[in-house]
Amino acid sequence: MTIYYSLTFLLLASEMISFCIFVAPLPFKVRRKLFRFLSESPITAKVAYGLKISFIFVGVLFVDALQRMFRINMEIEAAKSGGLAHTQDIRTETSHAARKFYAQRNVYLTGFCLFLSLVLTRTFHIIQDLIETQDEFAKLKKATASNSRNDLVAGEQTKEIERLKQDLETLKQQARSQAAEYDRLADQYNKETGKPTSNKRVD
């Protein structure tokens, strides 16, 4: 395996490890800190820029490996259909099979590397959106709980005000009844004593 395909394999392995870390069942706080670091760190931004350039080269390798695989398949088919199959020995067939295998391996290696890069990018954004949604949900839940407590306190205060109003009305009725009873007794006393009714209470 040449050096650029070896580097492509290392890149594919690092993508697989990153994907396993992203989907691992980490605690929410750890996951939030990890993704916040990955999204805000300048070092991560530089690494992401370098990876974008690397994926461009991997794309070029994918196209080249795909063309080479098609060319080798055409050569093998041409050799078989050209009447040379009976003259080929086992070494030629082994050479053709090895070339075909290496071409297919390079196509799969570069293709999976590009495909996993798309999956990894999409997974990162989905998990980041999920973390932001969970944060918003926690804030809304806290605000709802606070509003519920405020509504409960306001309801208790309203009930207390209503009770005080009822007590006030009761006291007013008792005061009016006592004033009426006082006036009645005053009138009766004045009639019995013959005094004028100037002491009558007025509400």
Structure description:
This protein has 203 residues and is mainly α. It has one domain. The protein contains four helices and no strands. It has helices at residues 3-23, 28-40, 42-81, 90-193. Helix 2 packs across helix 4 (90-193). It is rod-shaped, with a radius of gyration of 45 Å. The chain starts with a helix and ends in a 10-residue tail after the last helix. The mean pLDDT is 80. May play a role in anterograde transport of membrane proteins from the endoplasmic reticulum to the Golgi. It comes from Lactarius akahatsu. It is found in: Endoplasmic reticulum membrane. Keywords: Coiled coil, Endoplasmic reticulum, ER-Golgi transport, Membrane, Protein transport, Receptor, Transmembrane, Transmembrane helix, Transport.
